[in-house]
Amino acid sequence: MTNINPIKKIVIVGGGTSGWIAASMLSYHLKSDLCEIELVESEDLGTIGIGESTIPPVVRLIQNLGIDEQSFIQNTQACFKLGIKFIDWRQKNESYFHPFGVIGKRIGSHDFYQCWLKATMQGDASPLQDFSPCSVMAEQEKFFWPTQLQNTPIGGASYAVHLDAKLVVEYLRDYAYERGVKRTEGTVERVTQLENGNIEKLILKNGQEIHGDFFVDCTGFKALLIGQTLKVDFEDWSKYLPCDRAVVVKTEAQEKRPPYTTATARKSGWSWKIPLRNSTGHGYVYSSQFCTDAEAKSTLLKNLDGPRINDPHIISFTTGYRKKMWEKNCLSLGLASGFVEPLESTSIHLIARGMDFFLRFFPDRDCDPSLIKEYNRRMAADFEEVRDFIVLHYCTTKREDTDFWRFCKTMELPESLQERIALFKGHGIVREGTDELFRASSWQSIFEGMGIRPNKYCPRVDNMDYQEISDTLKMARQAIQSMVKNLPAHDQFLSENYRSDSLKK
Fold this sequence. Notes:
The chain is an alpha+beta fold. 35% of the residues lie in helices and 19% in strands. The protein is built from 15 helices and 21 strands. The strands form 5 sheets. A 7-stranded mixed beta sheet has the order 5-4-14-15-16-13-17.
């Protein structure tokens, strides 16, 4: 029997969202007396709060860490999110909604979408989103805990949160401290390696040396360990996703906060609007090939709907990922591992996902190459899935009014996305793999919203009496509408369940 050579110390380099999520998850799953966790936070590496919008797995992350959800929502000034409203993406003056949760329920033994598809071909004009509890709730700006409504017509709803990224970092930092994580303030000046290429230690500007058995790179785009030290190549996806800049700003909180993110297509990209209880987050993601920084800033500022809290800030980025996110005794997370623009709010999820897989494949100090290979395979699949899903929003546009949108409409597509589109157009089938983030209802929502509808429905649906399908659809629509009508407004729900006396400006 081979003796286990356990990891006794993990060093996280960089704080921010990725660093403190890593610290929180590691400290929760590892005993502090067996494995020391130290986080080195460098003043030179600032936190990029490019996304304050999340998806449902982030709520599950909080729950899985044993964190009281009510406390988390209160202290991060969160609002609830039922999905994303897309404006002007297919064509100007059109909008559609991408909801969380289910869309419809199986009718007999048949897939709901296939039954709905047949009904539309028979002349039923009921929109797909009429059968999504989250879409109907968002349209009426209502909210209630889905967990308390499981046996109702809206029991298939799900939710995420809009939150203040700075407050999230503060909350998770306190959480990690309580579980024994040590924080060291300092700037890394030099990284030394062993003969086998593994990272040995960090040397800070003040001369302090930080040794570790394993290192987690959370240094943002700088990628101090995975990129600069271990020389892992970065795969550039700019030919699929040309946006490479974002200008961000905050305004005062809205009087009325809708329970969804708004993503509005602009001349050379898109802008977001994220309602919080203490402010509203705005940003314009754009391509420098088609738009100057000054033009982008002007576009963002003229579309604000409230007084600014801070000055606009421009962030540069390149879409893509590290060809190996785990190399030797170093794991990369967050922006150090890769970046896909925040259109579907996947940034925090990918951080948590990276840690989840790392804990599944947790190594000893030998870092078995087979574990590393499998980790990298799974994470690459996740990044590529997110990439394809984001590209779908662009490549299916009908817009030809600007150079940017003409580029998107005619651009080269990843082979994996080409296959997904062909399968859906032909038969209304969504390819789903193991552990994929976006389920069939998400792909169906984007396809439908962008005007892509299958040529055929499943022939097996013809085995069911059409009147039964029609009656079921009618009753389902009415039941959801009736239920949602009686729910509290989102703002009312927030005011009744969360204190306003602790709001931070």
